[in-house]
Design a protein that fits this description.
CATH architecture: Up-down Bundle
Number of helices: 19
CATH superfamily: MFS general substrate transporter like domains
Radius of gyration: 22 Å
Number of domains: 1
Subcellular location: Membrane
GO molecular function, one term: acetyl-CoA transmembrane transporter activity
Distance between the termini: 35 Å
Helix content: over 70%
CATH class: Mainly Alpha
Order of helices and strands: HHHHHHHHHHHHHHHHHHH
GO biological process, one term: acetyl-CoA transmembrane transport
Largest sheet: none
Number of strands: 0
Protein name: Acetyl-coenzyme A transporter 1
Structural class: mainly alpha
CATH topology: Growth Hormone, Chain: A
Shape: globular
Organism: Effrenium voratum
Length: 456
């Protein structure tokens, strides 16, 4: 038999490319609401929101953490004439589009004005619903990907996921910032355009993309059995180890990822400039997963993440130092400062993206295709939980540890305190978990199988 051609052009069973299969229906749609969810804290800060309120808004991404609760439903229930995955993916994406249109129509009221404070809780609720639909779509396509990719190319699921989601994120974050700066369209107009795009793309997928029927003998189990299998998955020793690792490994980066952009804005850097710096790196974000795929081949893809981890820890103090020396009173801001800002953000972006690709490649390597989207959703939920709670905690801690009033015994900015604490915790984490990560990658794929361990 002729060996398969390595690389992204031979990923799937049919003779189509990765982006033909995944570019529109797979990770791109959830990336747009995620990008909007990142730009809105900057807008809310402009409208007078506190760090605590920004912490509340950060809860809008938590459906990605909780999606495990309804993953067995998505994996087990479907309409045969539509397709197992399209049954959920198509309605979810239509709901996202409709919610974008509704939010756009109410946005002026939600963001407030000079006389009214932002309706943070209402805005958080709308984005919670939007991300609930995004998370449901994620479950469906994660399961679809496991059956669509060749077994020997399973690690390329990480490539497709990271590249496509990053492209969607770029559209939601930097796309809006650039269009607003050049007065092409407002945030509400941008959200309306994205809403119509969602609906149009979804209808095209529903009508033009055919989902292959399930082979005989591969019908999903019932809902109750799916939940029972999920409980068994969480009892596996490798899964428990993975939970410890992923629940804690992003703590050192919480401030750099969430609070730092708001802090730069507070110190006088316009939000559109922050977005421009990020947009310069978008080609890197999108292409890096493609080239990183070769580094995640084999049974130890997490080794890539451990290699870049010290560099990512260092980006926290570097970002804090840059924020401290922000020349807010100098107009225009020197190019030297922007050069340093691009370098720092690029270092954080490269290390972050490589860690994400390594994580997703590891998930694809150990996931059991017999349980479709539920197993991948379990692993993704663990990863999402570790990525969601640190930024939320960071916003609250920065507010609690800041004291700038005249009545303060010692005036302090919690941003720098929390940054220092995170850097120390990062070094401790790296030393304490190195052996655990090595053990995690030493288990064979069979050790991650529910039925295998039950028969032992």
């Amino acid at each position: 038999m002729k060996p398969p051609i390595p690389g992204p052009l031979n990923l799937v069973h049919q003779p189509q490319t990765c982006f033909n299969k995944f570019g529109i229906p797979y990770p791109k749609p959830p990336g747009i609401p995620l990008g909007l969810g990142q730009i809105l804290p900057l807008v809310l800060k402009d409208r007078g929101a506190s760090y605590t309120e920004l912490g509340v808004f950060s809860l809008q991404s938590w459906p990605f953490v909780l999606k495990l609760l309804w993953a067995p439903l998505v994996d087990s229930l479907y309409i045969r004439s539509i397709g197992r995955r399209k049954t959920w993916m198509v309605p979810a994406q239509l709901i996202i589009g409709l919610l974008l249109l509704f939010t756009a129509a109410q946005l002026d009221l939600l963001l407030g004005d000079e006389s009214n404070t932002p309706a943070v809780y209402s805005l958080t609720g709308l984005f919670l619903l939007m991300n609930f639909a995004c998370a449901t779509q994620d479950i469906a396509v994660d399961g679809w990907a496991l059956t669509m990719l060749r077994k020997e190319n399973a690690n390329y699921q990480a490539t497709c996921n990271a590249a496509g989601q990053t492209f969607g994120y770029a559209m939601g974050f930097t796309g809006f910032a650039a269009l607003e700066h050049f007065q092409v369209m407002s945030l509400s107009s941008f959200m309306s355009a994205m809403g119509f795009m969602f609906i149009g793309v979804t209808l095209a997928v529903a009508l033009l993309k055919k989902e292959d029927p399930l082979p005989p003998g591969e019908e999903p189990e019932g809902v109750l059995e799916a939940y029972q299998q999920m409980v068994r998955m969480t009892s596996l020793k490798p899964v428990r180890y993975l939970f410890i690792i992923l629940f804690t490994w992003k703590v050192p980066f919480a401030v750099c990822e969430s609070v730092a952009p708001v802090k730069f804005q507070e110190y006088g850097i316009p939000k559109e400039h922050v977005a421009y710096v990020t947009s310069l790196l978008m080609p890197l974000y999108i292409l890096l997963p493609v080239f990183a795929a070769r580094w995640t081949e084999g049974p130890q893809p997490l080794q890539l993440a451990m290699t870049v981890y010290p560099s990512r820890i260092a980006t926290g103090p570097l970002t804090a130092a840059l924020a401290f020396y922000t020349p807010a009173q100098v107009v225009p801001i020197p190019w030297v400062f922007y050069t340093l800002l691009v370098f720092t953000i690029a270092a954080a972006a490269v290390t972050s993206e490589l860690m994400f690709v390594a994580q997703m490649a590891f998930f694809a390597h150990v996931s059991d295709p017999a349980f479709g989207g539920t197993y991948m959703t379990l692993l993704n939920t663990i990863g999402n939980l570790g990525g969601r709670w640190p930024p939320t905690a960071a916003f609250f801690l920065v507010d609690v540890l800041s004291c700038k009033h005249e009545s303060c015994l010692v005036q302090s900015d919690g941003f720098y305190t929390v940054t220092a604490l995170c850097a120390v915790l990062g070094v401790v984490w790296l030393v304490a978990t190195r052996a655990m990560v090595k053990q995690l990658q030493s288990w064979k794929p069979q050790d991650w199988r529910v039925n295998h361990q039950r028969s032992d």
